[in-house]
Amino acid sequence: MKRNTFCIIIFGTCLLLLLAACGNSPENKNGEENPGIKTQEKTDASAHEGHHKSGSGEVPENLKEAENPTYKIGSQAIIEADHMEGMKGAEATITGAYDTTSYTVTYKPTTGGEEVKNHKWVIQEEIENAGAAPLEPGTEVVLLADHMEGMKGATATIDSAEKTTVYMVDFVPTTGGEEVKNHKWVTESELSPVD
To answer: Within a 13 Å sphere around the CA of 165, how many CA atoms are in the beta-carbon half?
Structure first.
């Protein structure tokens, strides 16, 4: 009698473990992701994760409009940059064109988390007390830009500097979804004419 009870307990325990294992699979029976399970794809952070999808269109007060930009406001261009998912190859509408110095920066978000390396782009007018002269790589600065969560107020290091025309653009991601409005910034070298 004890032997039968022991076998039933072992069988029941195995059955429960099997059912529990099936319940922890990354997908449920409807094919939806289980929100309690993090997959590798979800945990790999890219440099621009958290990038604001659309901006207000506001620009720093002292930012000068480009006098003769290659891409005029209202014109179309193809984005060659991949700052965000679905950006590369998207057709953009130019909503602003400005002559300035653009920087790649490395910074630690004020909200915590991993350091963001070589973020493209922050412009001269989005750096606290930057003055008019271009800043040298290695210079430590405080960011006024608010392109990504935890960026504004963060201490950053200048990685590179380029005097150029920067553009604010609207585009529909090539991956689908809502139109991104007033994306800041794309440099002239990151755009190409529409064929």
So the answer is: 18
Classify the phi-psi angles of 50: left when phi > 0, otherwise alpha if psi is within -120 to 50, otherwise beta: left
Region of residue 117 (left: phi > 0; alpha: psi -120 to 50; beta: else): beta
Instruction: Label the pairing between strands 76-79 and 140-142.
Output: unpaired
Contact of 159 with 134, CB cutoff 8 Å = no
Structure tokens at 102: 């653009």
> From residue 6, how far is each of 28, 57, 117 by CA, in Å?
33, 71, 59
pLDDT in tens, 100-120: 999 999 999 999 999 999 999
Q: Give the whole-angstrom CA distance, residue 22 versus residue 16.
A: 10
pTM of the predicted model as reported, rounded to 2 decimal places:
0.72
Q: CB–CB of 173/180 below 8 Å? A: yes
The CA-atom distances, in angstroms, between 24 and each of 38, 40, 43, 81 are: 11, 15, 18, 39
Closest CA to 97 of 120, 123, 116: 123
